[in-house]
Amino acid sequence: MDETKNKTEPKVDWDDAVKKWDDLIKEYGGNTLSATAEGIDVFLDSLEERAKEEYTNIKKLFVDPTGEVRRKYNFKEKVTSGVLSPLARTKRVQEHLKKVEQTVVERCVEKYLDEVKGKIDNLRVKYQNTERTYEKSLELITSLRIEYINRLWFADLFEAQKQKAIEVIKTEKQTIDTCLKDNNFSEAQNAQKRYLVTEKKVRQLEQGRDNNALTAVNNYNQLVSIYETYQKAKIFCAFLQKTTGMLEQTYTDLSNRWEEFKKAGNMRDVVDSLRLTEVLKNAEETFKKNFSHDFPLIKKAEETVMEKIEAPTSIEYKNDIYRTATGLKQNVMGLFP
């Protein structure tokens, strides 16, 4: 048999142990667990003062800048308040009037949040539309650049063949003159046929050159206009994306804090909510300010488009469309994101 099983564990003198514990706690533990009633009251009073201050700030931010909630009362609430005001000394009436005021405050906050939500939804739609404009503009820019260079290349081919035809005309004219001097009328007539056919081909080649050159210039005009649209859409895309994202995040945080505030059933712990409200208001002000500055920029961009477009109106333009199209090549190569 195991001898350890026969041994009994020593008994603890409980009274003596408790005394030692008390002495140890008293001497070395300090009074960390003690709190005076006065200290608790001061703490609660402090919370109450903060709660009143926060509630006042909420009224000023969401209801009325002066904090006067009565200005937002509906007819029924005004009548109720007017009837009960003379009896406001009784606790029951005070509680009822307080409940009416809190109902108005909650209604104003919910209305404010709904209006902001509507603005954010509108911004989101504008952003989506602007993004589509941006993407379509970028697609057109790339295709128009390709089309311009392609048409200009065709114009170059026609111009090269035209120069060859002009050389043929010169040769046939010389042939005709030589044959006439030698009275070689048969060969002169053959040279005349070649001359007439070639001369017609020169005019056709020149027309083909100018047709392609005119199409190239028209492509350039479209490219300039669309490039301005692209630049404007690019700016607005970035602006709306950043603004919408900021407002959505702020709105979400503010809504969550407001829900927590309502569930808590008191006016405490809304300091962060107030700060977020200020952020939201500042964001809205920034948005309005930026848009007021951007509208003149849009107008200026449109004026710039009209300045850059080469309009085929002058006689010189019509007479030298190929040179005009060729001269625009460098501009086209520069119009790329």
Give structural notes.
The chain has 337 residues and is mainly α. Helices cover 83% and strands 0% of the residues. The protein contains nine helices and no strands. Helix 2 packs across helix 4 (91-181), helix 4 packs antiparallel against helix 5 and helix 5 (185-264) runs antiparallel to helix 6 (271-308). The longest helix is centred in the middle third of the chain and has 91 residues, at 91-181. The protein is elongated and about 150 Å long. Mean pLDDT is 76; it is low at 267-271 and 312-317.
Salient structural properties:
337 residues; mainly alpha; 0% strand; 9 helices; elongated
Coarse structural class: mainly alpha
Low-confidence stretches: 267-271, 312-317
Give the helix proportion (percent range). Answer: over 70%
Mean of residue pLDDT values: 76
What amount of the residues lies in strands? under 5%
Biggest sheet overview: none
Cα(first) to Cα(last) distance is 94 Å
User: Radius of gyration, rounded?
Assistant: 44 Å
Tell me the total number of β-strands: 0
The dominant shape is: elongated
How many helical stretches?
A: 9
Summarize the structure.
This protein has 337 residues and is mainly α.
Produce the secondary structure layout:
Layout: H1 14-29, H2 37-63, H3 75-84, H4 91-181, H5 185-264, H6 271-308, H7 315-319, H8 321-327, H9 329-334
